[in-house]
Amino acid sequence: KKRVLSGVQPTGSLHLGNYLGSISQWPKMQEEYDCSFCVVDLHSLTNMPKNTEVTKSLKENTLTAAAIYIASGVDPSTSNIFVQSHVKQHAELSWLLSCSLPLNWLERMIQYKDKTATAKEGEVGTGLLTYPALMAADILLYGAEVVPVGEDQRQHLELTRDIARRFNDLYCKGGPWKKKTKEYGIPSYPVFREPTAQIVKGGARIMSLSDGRNKMSKSDPNPNSCINILDSPDVIVQKIKAAKTDDIVGIFEDTSRPEANNLMSIYDITSQGDGEDVSNMSWGEFKPILATSVVEYLKPLQKRYEEVRNEEGYLEGVLKEGKENASVIAEETVRKVKIGMGFYLD
Ligand code: TYM
């Protein structure tokens, strides 16, 4: 079976973009692939939390994210669910990869360029730059070949491929590697597999409710811009009511109408083929229909979420077992990497 790995940062509430762009793909992949889903808590520090905003809720957000994975249909008896920081090889491999990763490969990442463009001096942490090396480590540690993500992660996946290829070429080719692997009794070339991004057709780029030209994002300061997976029906109704609109009657696709396009695609997905014809509706008619559709779509997930959180010790048990399973593979990979790089092994 091919391996799959994906993850979400527990930076705040997970939102509809995270769900439609990535998490909702995961349960369907469990049959065909050998899946690992990771709560990438180390990544949530990359925005350099200056105060306790991130850190005070990091633990709770990590548990919430893991529970959302399960509530979405990820089955812990089939897939491995774990927390990134529990498996120390993520940080270790990230360092090993960074040392053979040209700086300019990181500097050309769109997300890095976008986030630094508006930041003041001293506001950007080193982690924001090196973040894709950690993401590459997450994927390469487990030999994942398929990585279900939203559109905004495409470039990071391409970088991961480049990193994998470069590492294999530099350290795992030719005579010395063959000889060393023989010595240690491990299968030789290649150490890393080159992963590919699996990006859904609809939902790969859900936009903000307050500006249809920006993606829905956890870091948006306007809480009305995001529908969170765990928002109550009342909050969802109110956020959709407040969503930005235009003056045109009828909800239909038009390249010059980013808000209409976005809300219509959310409606298409959440109504699951059972939607009404909204092409002649006014915004006032459409919005309550959309709100009901989103509320109904999230309802089963929210119900299961409560069950998962209420079962004493269950989630903690899943994460403990997940850590143990992940560690076995992660250790083996780092060992191979270290052999390639010439380390004296313990
Ligand atoms: P993160 O936490 O920002 O987002 C998690 C997943 O949600 C997708 N996503 C979206 N999809 C559609 N519309 C949106 N508005 C939207 N916003 C976010 C993201 O593409 C992502 O798939 N670096 C990653 C996390 C990560 C990871 C990994 C992913 C770390 N290591 C290894 C896969 C494999 C991130 O920050 O995602």
Question: What does this protein structure show overall?
Answer:
The model has no long low-confidence stretch (mean pLDDT 94). This protein has 14 helices and 5 strands. The chain has 346 residues and is mainly α. The protein has helices at 16-21, 26-29, 52-55, 58-71, 89-98, 103-107, 110-117, 126-141, 154-171, 174-184, 233-242, 258-270, 283-310, 314-341, and strands at 3-8, 34-39, 80-83, 146-148, 196-198. The radius of gyration is 22 Å and the shape is globular. It has a 3-stranded parallel sheet with strand order 1-2-3.
Attribute tags:
346 residues; three-stranded parallel beta sheet; two-stranded parallel sheet; binds tryptophanyl-5'AMP; signal; ligase; protein biosynthesis
Summary?
The protein has helices at residues 16-21, 26-29, 52-55, 58-71, 89-98, 103-107, 110-117, 126-141, 154-171, 174-184, 233-242, 258-270, 283-310, 314-341, and strands at 3-8, 34-39, 80-83, 146-148, 196-198. With 346 residues, it is mostly helical. The two termini are 32 Å apart.
